[in-house]
# Entry
Amino acid sequence: MAELNDRRAEVSRDTAETSIRATVNIDGTGVAQVSTGIGFFDHMLTAFAKHGRFDLTVEAKGDLHVDAHHTMEDVALVVGQAFDRALGDRAGIVRMGDALVPLDEALIQCVIDISGRPFGVIDLDFVGPMIGEAPSQMVEHVLHSFATAAKLTLHVRQLAGANDHHIAEAAMKALGRALDKATALDPRIVGQVPSTKDTLTA
# Structure
């Protein structure tokens, strides 16, 4: 089982569309250094790290002259892969976590199972097409891509909300809080994988 402060990973991805490097420390304090070229996306990732108490660095250069899609998608995949690697064999983790996060009129519920089975059910209702330089539809795609790469089951539901910025930010904060709970180490099961299959990676 990984010891506290050992659950770190670095992942790089280079394609004709993007060049991305990300590091994550699951047992951090919420320090984020994020640069994607998309201001609102930087804000979302920073909120995710701050409220999840993860240390996160992201350096991304993408084909923003096309649009934000490739950069946001690939960053979500790289950050998800970093979490997957940092978690190792998942021994000793709580495994499941949930969070209910308000931001003014918005209220978002996030539930996670670090199951080894990538799956996402995302229900967010945005009003406009853009949030700053980020397409609002990409928020859902980012969440799906992260769940796929991190190999976890993710449910995100909007219970209330009318302001797109609030909805998206609350969703990322909820993801951070739920993931913090799910990745926490349970002292009652040191060295044990919390699954009747005895594996969460196969």
Observations:
- Helices lie at 39-52, 69-87, 137-150, 164-183.
- The domain at 8-189 is CATH 3.30.230.40 (Ribosomal Protein S5; domain 2).
